[in-house]
């Protein structure tokens, strides 16, 4: 057999290992309906949980809204009537579910504005921060994970694996505070180079405003990348190590294919299947943001807004944010479940 026939042989072995393609009338439609039904049930459970869970938080939202001022019982009753807190719990729940299904999460106690408007206002800021970090830590994790697996046991593999495990185990808020102390406040001869928090300094326009936002973005993005890239690295490395012992890779090497070609065209694509699932999960978390990181760096996103709402507690805002966070994760997990059989048809059997 000639060397030119080797890629075709390897691809045939890959198709054989992966099983038959998904055909019309196969198990995929049933698999699809099952996953969509599961997602619908999960969303319903989130809707119920978001109502009852946050009512366990101690504190009176109405008294918190008054800011400690002396308020008469009649005024407190008027506030409760305005926000529907005087209604029976079952009535509050039915009203909440009916409005939530139409996209109306009520009015924020502290901002006196529709919850949807507050979420829409903060969402772009969260997507800028977590989206930038997501792209960076995903690319870095896949790149270092493939290199570590292909150089298994060498010094570089041990270094990257050890560093990834160390950073992944560090709390994100602690690392963020450490970066603020070292790189924002400054230590000894090392001056502060980055802002301590916020999204912009104010007063900048045009390209100067873009640079200002990017300057504020550095430390929170570095914090997220440092903490999150290790998970992608470890999953990619583990999947590729399992794939490297496959017979079709041994055949490809025996037929004279270059090592980098075997890795790039055959081993890595098959090994990325678990990583694809992880990417979709992390993509769902991108909408949710990272509450602790946004709080530490005073970033005006959904995470910081959620922390601020919890301190009141601002029940409509907390419920709306919780539902948005959970919905994003559920939808991305469902999308991953629907895409996975297209990559590996055996899943839908």
Could you walk me through the main structural features you see in this protein, from its secondary elements to its overall organization?
- With 349 residues, this protein is an all-alpha fold.
- Helices cover 71% and strands 1% of the residues.
- It contains 15 helices and two strands.
- The protein has helices spanning 6-18, 28-53, 61-65, 73-82, 89-100, 115-150, 155-168, 172-185, 206-243, 247-254, 259-271, 273-288, 291-296, 302-310, 315-343, and strands at 186-187, 190-191.
- The chain has a two-stranded antiparallel sheet.
- Helix 1 (6-18) packs antiparallel against helix 10, helix 6 runs antiparallel to helix 12 and helix 6 (115-150) packs parallel to helix 15.
- The chain is flat, with a radius of gyration of 25 Å.
- The protein starts with 5 loop residues before the first helix and ends in a 6-residue tail after the last helix.
- 30% of the residues are buried.
Please report the number of helical segments: 15
Which stretches of 5+ consecutive residues score pLDDT under 50?
1-25
Gross geometry: flat
Strand order of the largest sheet: 1-2
Please bin the fraction of helical residues: over 70%
For the biggest sheet, the summary is: 2 strands, antiparallel
Straight-line N-to-C gap: 35 Å
Query: If you compute it from the alpha carbons, what radius of gyration comes out, rounded to the nearest whole angstrom?
Result: 25 Å
Compressed to H and E, one letter per element, the order equals HHHHHHHHEEHHHHHHH
Q: Approximately what portion of the residues adopt beta-strand conformation? A: under 5%
Number of strands: 2
Average of the residue pLDDT scores: 79
Structural class: mainly alpha
